[in-house]
Amino acid sequence: MKYKxxxxxxxxxxxxxxxxxxxxxxxxxxxxxxxxxxxxxxxVKYDPEKLRGFVTYADEExxxxxxxxxxxxxxxxxGNIVYDRYNKDNKSLEISCNLHPNYWRRxxxxxxxxxxxxxxxxxxxxDNIVYSYAEENFKSKGLSxxxxxxxxxxxxxxxxxxxxxxxxxxxxxxxxxxxxxxxxSNKTR
Length: 189
What we know:
Layout: E1 8-9, E2 13-16, H1 20-26, H2 52-60, E3 65-71, E4 77-87, E5 92-99, H3 108-123, E6 128-134, H4 138-147, E7 150-159, E8 164-174, H5 175-182
Parallel strand pairs: 5-6
Antiparallel strand pairs: 1-2, 2-3, 3-4, 4-5, 6-8, 7-8
């Protein structure tokens, strides 16, 4: 099924499809080098030509929502969230997210994820959202814990850049758990 990425708004953010120029602002740095995998944490500029496929990904694939996160106050693109990798066995989508380092530790990603999860659970035939991260990625683990994802599965995957095996942690949140924690009577965002 082809999803159409909606326009969502929170108190501080607008979430919608973005342009190539918006992706180049979000991915000023190679965010994969800021995940602390195998001790790697360095600010390296990202080659903007590698971003060309990002903009059309949601148009070319099924079961994809592709949001750029913008600040409402100035329409500045600061991050992105993608829902993809539909799993029919547990009716789930996997969420991936990135935030420009200038905007870390301000609650923007939590706010954006909760808004998009609410949309997914209320408007699509999805029962679960899966969030994965490398064990060493303490920022992603913290985000998973903060939102309330539960451990689902772990496995080892070979990380080519360092020729090293890494442990990937998959966490999950069900629609039922989301509604218990963030439903209309529990709005604490």
